[in-house]
Amino acid sequence: MFVGVDVGGTKVLAVELNGRGEDLAVARAAQLPMPGRTAAAGEVEEAVAQAVLEVAAERPLTCVGVSAAGLVDRAGEQVRFAAHLPWRDAPVRLRLEERIGAPVLLDNDANCAARAELVAGALRGVDSAVLITVGTGIGGAVVLDGRVVRGANGMAGEFGHVQVVPDGLECECGLRGCWEQYCSGRALERVTRVTLGSHLDGPEVAALARDGHPAAREVFATIGTWLGVGIAGLVSAYDPEVVVVGGGVSAVGDLLLEPARRGLLDALQATAHRDVPRIVPTRFGPEAGAVGAALHAGA
Ligand SMILES: [Zn+2]
């Protein structure tokens, strides 16, 4: 049995897949809260193992794919750095293999999400694409000629820490003005405090926005516009056919994506003289990383 597990800033999600191609679906899933950035690495690894064992339900595991929200080295052995997790140059693949008792394959979460969308989702048959995950922070992946671009260190596509505002807001990574300070789950909470004057969490603001609450919609318009501004830079760099947006914050759909489409048009050069890429949601949504990790394990 192949299991995929996504390790994000706020939760661990493990899935088992069923079917293939367009019929691919999540058969079982288990979700645990992430112990947090201040937790010991061992606590995070224990949460991963627990989620995997819950999905496995005492059946033997063939291989486990792990999708991590951080910089994974090209060999897939270490998480070198993760702004929202305690891993620093940590041999995560081996540690998890020992804890879980089955072979483990490790990759970056956005790369995993891109793999899921290429195999069975929004990127089937697409040659050039950019994938953005808007979760606790921002993750990204680049697809050129139908393949995920890895970069010299396996770290290509870390768009969340591209500076969009000089001397802007302080980021968990230690820099200032990073894109994810303006467009992410963390940014959503900050903009909510400013706009609504309340400490609602992401899903609560999303529920209000879906019900038509004007200020809650304004929060997603602000975040979405920043999403479009960042995407404009990526379109200039990579000329993608499609931009796929996933991650927990994107669960509100067009409430986020429509402002992003407008933000892209406003911030992109020569829009009258080019095909502006479509901005579309992921097929697998918040499960894309875990699904791609399971596909990695099963490949
Ligand atoms: Zn940063």
Structural description of this entry:
The chain is α/β, with parallel strands linked by helices and 299 residues long. It is globular. It has 8 helices and 13 strands. The model has no long low-confidence stretch (mean pLDDT 94). The protein starts with a strand and ends with a helix. It is 36% helix and 22% strand. The protein has 2 domains: 2-112 and 287-298, Nucleotidyltransferase, domain 5 (2-Layer Sandwich); 126-282, Nucleotidyltransferase, domain 5 (2-Layer Sandwich), CATH 3.30.420.40. The strands form 3 sheets. Strands 3-2-1-4-8 form a 5-stranded mixed beta sheet. The protein has a 5-stranded mixed beta sheet with strand order 11-10-9-12-13, with helices on both faces. A 3-stranded antiparallel beta sheet has the order 5-6-7, with no helix packed on it. Helix 3 packs across helix 8 and helix 4 packs antiparallel against helix 6 (214-238). This is ROK family protein.
Please supply descriptive tags for the structure shown above.
single chain; 299 residues; alpha/beta; Nucleotidyltransferase, domain 5; 2 domains; five-stranded mixed sheet; binds zinc ion
- Specify the helix fraction band: 25-40%
Gap from first CA to last CA: 12 Å
Largest sheet: 5 strands, mixed
Mean pLDDT: 94
Number of domains: 2
The 3D shape can be described as: globular
CATH H-level homologous superfamily name of the largest domain? ATPase, nucleotide binding domain
Strand proportion, as a percent range, falls in: 15-25%
* Secondary-structure arrangement, i.e. CATH architecture of the largest domain: 2-Layer Sandwich
Pfam family, one: ROK
Organism: Nocardioides antri
InterPro entries: ATPase_NBD, ROK, ROK_cs
Family: Belongs to the ROK (NagC/XylR) family.
